[in-house]
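Incident log, support desk, overnight shift.

02:14 A customer reports that sequence design results differ from what the structure should imply. Their input is reproduced verbatim below. On-call engineer (initials T.W.) acknowledged and began investigating.
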C-alpha cells in the first residue's frame, strides 16, 4: 500500500501549497506498474472541528524548522494520523527529507507506535539531483544547474573521507565542512539563495561543532531560480 496526500498543515504562509504538483492519475499508474495493490489518497484529513495536533518539541530549532515555522508540527500530525489509520507493519520514508526521517523515528518511539520505520536511500536523477515533486517546476537549464546540490554534498563527503583515512583520530570541524559546501553552492550562478548548510547529529538533528567517527548528516536548502530544493548526505 502507498499513501498520496498533499498535507496543507505543513505549508506556511507564502509557501507553494496551491502550486504544489498534484498528479494522482500518473502516480497511481506508476504505483500499479510497481505492483502496489492499494493506494490511500484521501481528499481531506482534517474536518471542520479538528483541534488536535502533534507538536514535536525541539524540531522548530533545526535548520529546516527555522526556515519553515510550524512545518514539523504539520508533518508530525499527518504522519501520526496516517499510521493510526493504516496501522502498517512497516512504513517507508525517503532519506531526502532527513529531518523528517529523524522526526518520524522519534514520534513512533516516543508514542510507542507498533510500526517499523524503514529509511530508504534518496533516489537521484542521472546528474545527481534528488528526485522531488518540485523538480517539475525547474526549467531545462535550472535542472542542469540543480546538480550543484549533490556536487556540493560530495565535497563534504570527500573532506570527511580524507579525514577518516588519516591518522584514525577523526576530528573534523563542522564549520570547515559548511564553508566548503557553501563555496561550492555559490559557484553556481543560478543559485539565487542559500537558506542553510547544516551539519547535524544523525539521531537528533541538533547542530554539531565537530564531526567524529559517529558521522553526521550534512543538509542544504537553496533556491534555483524560484524553486526551493533540499538535499542531504549521511556521513
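02:41 Re-run completed on a clean worker. Output:
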Amino acid at each position: 500500500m502507498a499513501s498520496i496526500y498533499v498535507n496543507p498543515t505543513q505549508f506556511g504562509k507564502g509557501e507553494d501549497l496551491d502550486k504544489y504538483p498534484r498528479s494522482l492519475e500518473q502516480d497511481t499508474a506508476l504505483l500499479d506498474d510497481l505492483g502496489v495493490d492499494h493506494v490511500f489518497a484521501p481528499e481531506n484529513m482534517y474536518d471542520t472541528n479538528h483541534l488536535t495536533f502533534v507538536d514535536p518539541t525541539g524540531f522548530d530549532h533545526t535548520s529546516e524548522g527555522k526556515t519553515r515555522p510550524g512545518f514539523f508540527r504539520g508533518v508530525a500530525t499527518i504522519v501520526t494520523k496516517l499510521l493510526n489509520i493504516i496501522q502498517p507493519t512497516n512504513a517507508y520514508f525517503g532519506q531526502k527529507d532527513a529531518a523528517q526521517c529523524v522526526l518520524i523515528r522519534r514520534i513512533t518511539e516516543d508514542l510507542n507506535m507498533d510500526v517499523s520505520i524503514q529509511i530508504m536511500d534518496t533516489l537521484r536523477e542521472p546528474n545527481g539531483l534528488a528526485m522531488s515533486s518540485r523538480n517539475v517546476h525547474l526549467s531545462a537549464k535550472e535542472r542542469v544547474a540543480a546538480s550543484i546540490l549533490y556536487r556540493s554534498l560530495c565535497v563534504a563527503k570527500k573532506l570527511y573521507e580524507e579525514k577518516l583515512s588519516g591518522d584514525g583520530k577523526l576530528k573534523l570541524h563542522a564549520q570547515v565542512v559548511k564553508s566548503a559546501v557553501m563555496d561550492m553552492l555559490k559557484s553556481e550562478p543560478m543559485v539565487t539563495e542559500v537558506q542553510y548548510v547544516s551539519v547535524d547529529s544523525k539521531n537528533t538533528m541538533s547542530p554539531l561543532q565537530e564531526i567524529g567517527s559517529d558521522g553526521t548528516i550534512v543538509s542544504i536548502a537553496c533556491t534555483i531560480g524560484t524553486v526551493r530544493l533540499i538535499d542531504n548526505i549521511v556521513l
